[in-house]
Amino acid sequence: MTGHGKLILVTGGAGYVGSHTIVLLLTENYQVVVVDNLSNSVKGNGNLPESLERVQALTGCNVKYYDCSLEDKEALKRVFSENKIDAVIHFAALKAVGESCLIPLTYYRNNVGGSVNLLEVMKDFGVKKIVFSSSATVYGDPQYLPIKEDHPTGQGCTNPYGKTKFFVEEILKDLWKSDQEWGIILLRYFNPVGAHHSGLIGEDPLGIPNNLMPYIAQVAIGKRECLNVFGSDYETSDGTGVRDYIHIEDLASGHLSALGKLLGVGTTPQCYKGWRAYNLGTGEGHSVLEVISAFEKASQKTIKYKLVERRLGDVPASYADATRAREELEWTAKKNLLDMCSDMWRWQSKNPCGFHQESK
Ligand code: UD1
Predict the structure, then answer these.
(1) pLDDT at residue 125 tops 90
(2) What is the CATH T-level fold of the domain 7-202+245-283+319-333, as seen in this structure?
(3) Atom of ligand 1 nearest to the CA of 313
(4) 249-269 per-position pLDDT tens digit
(5) CA distance 105 to 126
(6) Mean pLDDT across the stretch 143-167?
(7) Strands 242-243 and 286-287
(8) What is the residue extent of each domain of the chain?
(9) Which of 16, 65, 139, 161 is catalytic?
(10) In the predicted model, is pLDDT for residue 73 greater than 90?
C-alpha cells in the first residue's frame, strides 16, 4: 500500500497500457484521475470508457474520468484546478506507425503539441513530476544488442510516430535543464503484449491489428484467416524478426516503480529530481516463429501462417538491457512468453470483440 492516497493524473488512461497501470495504482492505494478523449477506446454503458468500468469492477475502487483531449488546454486547466494532483503518468498519444506516415501533422499536433500543453499546465499548477510513456522505437535500428539506455536515440526513427516519442523526450530534457525542480522519468517500452490475468481487460485494436500478438490472437479465434510473417531471411536463429516481448502487467508495474522514485514512496525515501530513461523489457528476444509456437501451446489452436516479404521499416532484432531498471527502480519483468500468450488468449477468448458487445 505504497500510494498513501496520492492523486495521480493518468492521461490516456482508458487505453491498453493505461488501464493496466491504473489497476495497480488503485491496488497500491493511489487515487486516480483520468483524462482520455476516447480516440482509441470504447464508451461503456455509463459515463466511463468500458475499459475503466472494468477496472472499477476489478478493483472495487472509483476512477474519476474527464473526456478531454490534451489539445484542449482550457479543459486541462479545469482538471488541474478541480483536483490536487501529485504527479502525472502521460500515456495519451496516437500510436499507429503506418497512419503516422499518412497524417504526420495530426501526430505532431496531438503527441507533441498535446504534451507541450500538458507540461505548460503542470508548470502553472506547480506539478513537476512526470512519468512519460516512451518507446524503444527511439533507438531506431540498434547499433548493438542488448540495447542500453545510453544508446543513441532519434537517429534511425523512420516514421513520424517514432519521432514524436523522441521529440517529447528531448522537450522534457530541455524542460529539466531550465528548471531542476522537475522529476522526469521516461519509460522506453519494448513490445508490450498479453492482458490482465483476470481476462477482464486487454488490448482492443481498432480494425486490422498492426502488431504481431493481437494478429495471432485474432487468427486463433477465427477472425482472421492467416498470419503474414514479415521476413524469413533475417540474420536471426530462424530468419524471422526478434523482439523483446513484455507482459503488460510487468510493464504496468514498471510505472509504479518509476512513480515511487518520483514521489519518494516505497523503497525510495527521497523524491527523485532529474531526467532519466529506463528500458522496460525482459532482456530476452523471441522470434516470430517462437511466438506462434508459444501461442499455439497456450491456446491449443493451430495458427495458420505464411512467410512473406519483410515489412518496410522493421529492424531484424531488438531487445533490452534492463539492468538500469533493476538497479535503480528495483524492477524486473517476471512473466515469460507462455504467460503472455496464455493471458492474451484468456482475454481474446472471453472477449472475441474486445470491449465491444458485438462484432465491429
Ligand atoms: C511496432 C512498431 C513500433 C511500435 C511498436 C508498438 C513498426 C515498424 N514498428 O514494433 O514503432 O513502437 O510496434 O508495440 O510498426 N510481424 C509479423 N506479422 C504481423 C505483425 C508483425 O510477422 O502481422 C512481425 C514483425 O515483422 C516483427 C514482430 O512481428 O518482427 C513484431 O512486430 P510488431 O508487433 O508490429 O512490433 P514492432 O515491429 O517491434
Answers:
(1) yes
(2) Rossmann fold (3.40.50)
(3) 8
(4) 999 999 999 999 999 986 667
(5) 30
(6) 96
(7) antiparallel
(8) 7-202+245-283+319-333
(9) 161
(10) yes
Please give the distance, rounded to the nearest whole angstrom, from the Cα atom of residue 141 to the centre of ligand 1. 13
pLDDT given for residue 267 in this prediction: 66
Distance between CA 68 and CA 35 in Å, rounded? 6
Active site residue 66: no
Query: What mean pLDDT comes out for the span 147-156?
Result: 96
Q: Which of 233, 311, 344 to mutate to test the pocket of ligand 1 (most atoms within 8 A of CB)?
A: 311
| pLDDT on residue 39 | 87
Amino acid at 287: S
Tell me the pLDDT tens digit for each residue of 186-212: 999 999 999 999 999 999 998 899 999
Beta bridge partners, 189, equal 135, 280
**Residue 105 pLDDT exceeds 90:** yes
**Chain position carrying cell 532484432:** 317
Report the residue count for the chain. Answer: 360
> Residue 39 gets which letter from DSSP?
T
- Alpha carbons within 13 angstroms on the beta-carbon side of residue 47 total 7
Query: What backbone phi and psi angles, to 5 degrees, belong to 247?
Result: -65, 135
Please give the helix or strand (H or E) that residue 356 lies within, else none: none
Query: How far is residue 336 from each of residues 201, 236, 246, 282, 329, measured CA to CA in Å?
Result: 19, 20, 8, 8, 20
Buried b (16+ CB within 10 A) or exposed e, 284-294: bbbbbbbbbeb
Task: State whether residue 226 is helix, strand or coil.
Answer: coil
**Strand ranges, E, within the chain:** 7-11, 31-36, 64-67, 87-90, 129-135, 183-189, 191-193, 227-230, 242-243, 245-247, 274-280, 286-287, 305-308, 317-318
**pLDDT tens sequence across 282-325:** 999 999 999 999 999 999 999 999 999 999 989 999 999 999 99
Residue 160 preceded by cis peptide, ω within 30? no
Helices 212-220 and 288-299, axial angle in degrees (round to 10): 40
Task: For ligand 1, atom 6, name the residue with the nearest CA.
Answer: 191
